[in-house]
């Protein structure tokens, strides 16, 4: 148990560089899911759409991914996101104070990383 705890602390404290766009097929649409919580009822509304290649939203997302390839930490947690972007074995979760990226690497291993960031830079994903 102590070994697992020490490994988890070590794994989450190491900063990694991730080329996010290596895990996205840039010629295919991305799936966008926006989760909105109604504070009065406690119910969540889910809105899904596609982000088409060469659209402004697609280009902004890809630019953000390219500009944010450092400062990632491995994570083994589950997260509830306010929005997500996905494609095949790639997922990007937008949290209140950061993001999570998950993918299957070239060896078939599932990876997940988190990054604390100013999510205002990603507001274009949830704005109409």
Can you describe this structure?
The protein is of the alpha+beta class and 128 residues long. The protein has one domain (2-125). Helix content is 19%, strand content 35%. The protein is built from two helices and eight strands, in the order H-E-E-E-H-E-E-E-E-E. It has an eight-stranded antiparallel β-sheet with strand order 1-4-8-7-6-5-2-3. A hairpin with a 2-residue loop joins strand 5 (83-87) and strand 6. The longest helix is centred in the N-terminal third of the chain and has 12 residues, at 2-13. It is globular and about 45 Å long. The protein starts with a helix and ends in a 12-residue tail after the last strand. Residues 1-12 have low confidence and may be disordered.
